[in-house]
Amino acid sequence: MEESLTLKKLRERFPASIIDTHSFRGDDTAVIKRVDVVDICRFLKESPDLSYNFLMDLTAVDYLQMGNSPKEGRFEVVYHLYSLKYNHRVRIKSPLTEADPTIDSLTPLWAVANWLERECWDMFGIRFDGHPDLKRILLYEQFEGHPLRKDYPLTGRQPLIGPKN
Amino acid sequence: MEKTATLARELNIREMTLHMGPSHPAMHGTVRMFLELDGETVVSSDVEIGYLHRGFEKTCENRTYHQAIIYTDRLNYVSPLINNFGYAMAVEKLFGVDVPERCKYIRVIMSEISRITDHLTNVGASAMELGAITAFLYMIKAREVLWRLIEEVAGGRGVTPSYVRIGGVKDDLPEGFQGRALEAFKVTREVLQEIHGLLTKNRIFVDRTKGVGAITADEAMSYGFTGPCLRSTGVAYDVRKAQPYMVYDKMNFEVPVGTNGDNYDRYLVRMEEIQQSMRICEQALFSMPPGPIKIDDPRITFPSKEDVYGKMESLINHFKLFMNGHGITPPKGEVYQAVEGANGELGFYVVSDGSGRPYRLRCRPPCFMIMSGVSRLVNGGMVADIVPTFGSVNMIGGECDR
Amino acid sequence: MAIESALGESVVLTRTDKVLGWARKYSLFLYPFVTACCGMEYMAAAASHYDIDRFGAGLPRFSPRQADVLFVVGTISHKQAPILKRVWEQMCEPKWVVAFGGCTCSGGPYDNYATVQGIDTIVPVDVYIPGCPPRPETVLDGIMKLQEKIQSQKQEL
Ligand code: SF4
User: Fold this and answer.
1) Do residues B90 and B338 make contact, with C-beta atoms less than 8 angstroms apart?
2) pLDDT for residue B167
3) CA dihedral (B379, B382, B384, B388) positive or negative
4) pLDDT digits (tens, 9 = 90+) for C48-77
5) What separation in angstroms does the CA of C43 have from each of A160, B75, B160, C27, C49?
6) Which residues of chain C neighbour B191 with C-beta distances below 8 Å?
7) Cβ-based burial of A51 (10 A; exposed 0-12, middle 13-18, buried ≥19)
8) Pick from B23, B54, B58: which is nearest to C75 by CB?
9) Which among C103, C117, C119 is the best mutation to test ligand 1's pocket, defined by most ligand atoms within 8 Å of the CB?
10) What residues have CB less than 8 Å from B320, skipping those under 6 apart?
């Protein structure tokens, strides 16, 4: 299948940091090394023939229970970008290891990254270097653990008051 | 300048810290705001959300694909049908299947009715917070009529209809629906007329909303705003136009945009969107083709109830789809599907490991992004202006906190 | 008996308990603690079509100190629970609590790490209104149940 413009440009510009690219059901995806995430996103945002100006979504996936989990690491941070000018989307993924789930923060590029990264920290325990104020957002400070990790039980209740039923 | 500084020191003036919420009449849904005030001006603010975090994503990972539908209802509970369809479309994309034409038309009609009820509720509630209770009561009157439409199609009132099925919808539209829908739109149009009379040129309403909570287009994009909040700044981004799904490409409608990005523009954009949604509905009602309403594929859709009770194969099929450990199993992969929710782009990111349960189900909640910009909207304004600003961004707890 | 026949119809005799109960049940001041989807149905019940005002419960008070009935409408998460408790503590006696919707009765569809499994683990509940969300008719029925309860209980002065 023909590779889309975005993926081709990414390959040209960052040959060393692209681990893999694919387009399942028309969703362009690039798997990248975590060290280059800010550079790649800045390139995608600022290069005039791509101009991905929206950070639509930022989340993560915990591949702990996926049969043949990716060898690069347990977590994957997933970015969805959208370009208003060219009306196209791309997904950027970056694997992280369990021992060191850390990646650079995108807050210098997009204001919304602030809250999205806080959510990701809250739910998965992924740390974002350079984030101005990385603290819990949806849960409370007293909460221990990160609920969306696959090894956190569904009913692992940690009530502030009342019984733990 | 220096004089005021010394005066301030002598009088021991300092900034006041105020907590607004979490249980506050204007904070529909529960949000806490930490405000630093200098007199009545907001110097800085911090918004805390998460009081309605109900573990949507984790719960769905432990349910089958069909069971997850009821949780999508409760994301944006003011326009649940849009969430339903968005989620179903994501799973269908994972399968790589396309639903029949008539089903798409039904989905368009129901989404737009849902959008209307959402905007009605929002405009009504935010007007009520400014003291215009009449507007709220009128809006609820129209919403009640539309909810009755939804009820006769989906079986549940507007909040939790769970109308969608993966690969189709639950039932066809009932007989005589077209006429009743047109009747309901007539009522809605009358109500809108009245609301325009009550609010659009109302001195108090205009004074409290115009120029308040304004944001520029660039900032709005940096904050990831979509939907009416982005369009009010003049950016005509609407998923229905940009990346048409279902049959929106066959519909004739306009995307209203504002200029200033303030509360008043957001109000006007929403009012106009209601009109456009009714236009879409009417076109769809008249051009709807006959035909099946779900895919004919026993691996995805349920057999009809009559068949389950009457035919052996259907019974087995039903059993297989509902038994623990069976159910529909999309291929391995991951997709992102965006639809235009009432608050903006509503995206579903589904990761499948080939089993009967979503390995990861992520919802991109438009409210969350907008809420991250709320402290930018209220900083520098008056403390009383927080109420209209917060009302006009339409924060829906279920969607923002999930 | 004799007094009644002497005074005729100009006077009604009753017990204090009864008259206080009668007064209290028709002047319910609600505190709607609205958090989630059920709030939409609460709005519908409160607006003109279903008109909660017919039961003397039309005026919501947004200060717990002015309210008699705490309407807990919508899911209560563990983050929210201390706030609910605090609101309840701030209300003056006599006070009642209504659990509105499946989530407040039992946790509803959410049996997971984030939600409280029924608010009766935190505050005492007088009337449960089940449903996800309950229809306005159910809500009105719940209010009538509450009124019966108020009428029949011992009235504290
Ligand atoms: S009972 Fe149902 S409708 Fe009510 S808050 Fe809970 S989930 Fe929402």
Assistant:
1) no
2) 83
3) negative
4) 788 888 888 877 788 888 888 888 888 888
5) 30, 18, 15, 19, 10
6) none
7) middle
8) B54
9) C103
10) B326
Query: How far does residue A36's CA lie from ligand 1's centre (Å)?
Result: 44
């004739």: which residue's tokens?
B252
Domain A5-65+72-129 coded CATH 3.40.630.30? no
**Mean residue pLDDT across chain B:** 85
DSSP track, B70-104: HHHHTTSTTSHHHHHHHHHHHHHHHHT----HHHH
- Confidence band, pLDDT 50/70/90 cuts, at residue B321: confident
Query: Chain centroid to CA C148: how far?
Result: 12
Sign of CA dihedral B228, B229, B233, B236: negative
Which pLDDT value is given to residue B8?
66
Pick the CATH number of B56-401 from 1.20.1070.10, 3.40.50.1820, 3.30.70.250, 1.10.645.10: 1.10.645.10
Identify the pLDDT of residue A140: 86
Which residue's CA is minimally distant from atom 2 of ligand 1?
C132
Q: Which one has a higher pLDDT value, A69 or B252?
A: B252
Ligand 1 centroid–CA C74 distance in Å is: 6
Task: Give me the residue spans of the domains in chain B.
Answer: 2-48, 56-401
Could you report the per-residue pLDDT of C41-56, keeping only the tens digit for each? 888 888 878 888 888 8
Residue of A nearest to C121 (CA): A162
pLDDT at residue B27, as a whole number: 61
Using alpha carbons only, give the angle B266, B270, B274 rounded to the nearest 5 degrees: 170
Q: State how far the Cα of B211 lies from the Cα of B218, in Å rounded to an integer.
A: 17
Q: What are phi and psi of B299, to 5 degrees?
A: -85, -15
> What residues in B contact C62, CB-CB < 8 Å?
24-25
pLDDT category at A70 given cuts 50, 70, 90 is low
C4: pLDDT strictly greater than 70: no
Residue C111: closest C-alpha in chain A:
A155
Distance C101 CA to ligand 1 centre (A): 6
Q: How far is the C-alpha of B191 from the C-alpha of B189, rounded, in Å? A: 5
Q: CA–CA separation, C144 vs A9, rounded Å? A: 68
Which residues on C lie below 8 Å from B136 (Cβ)? 47
Report strand pairing: B358-364 vs B32-38: unpaired
**CA torsion, ordered B168, B169, B171, B177, to nearest 10 deg:** -120
Read off the pLDDT band of B97 (50, 70, 90).
confident
Residue B363: C-alpha distances to residues A113, A124, B348 (Å): 16, 15, 5
Residue A1 has pLDDT above 60, yes or no: no
How far is the C-alpha of A124 from the C-alpha of A116, rounded, in Å?
12
pLDDT of C10 > 80? The answer is: no
Ligand 1 lining (C-beta closer than 6 Å): B 74, 159-160; C 36-38, 74-75, 101-103, 108-109, 132-133
B356 pLDDT tier (thresholds 50, 70, 90):
confident
Nearest atom of ligand 1 to the alpha carbon of C74: 5
- Strand C127-129 vs strand C96-100: parallel, antiparallel, or unpaired? parallel
Instruction: Tell me the pairing of strands B168-169 and B164-165.
Output: antiparallel
Write the CA distances from B391 to A127, B98, B107, B351, C94, integer angstroms. Answer: 33, 38, 28, 35, 33
Residue of A nearest to C79 (CA): A140
Residue A68 scores a pLDDT above 70: no
Q: Tell me, what's the ipTM?
A: 0.88
Question: Counting atoms of ligand 1 from 1, which one is nearest the CA of C132?
Answer: 2
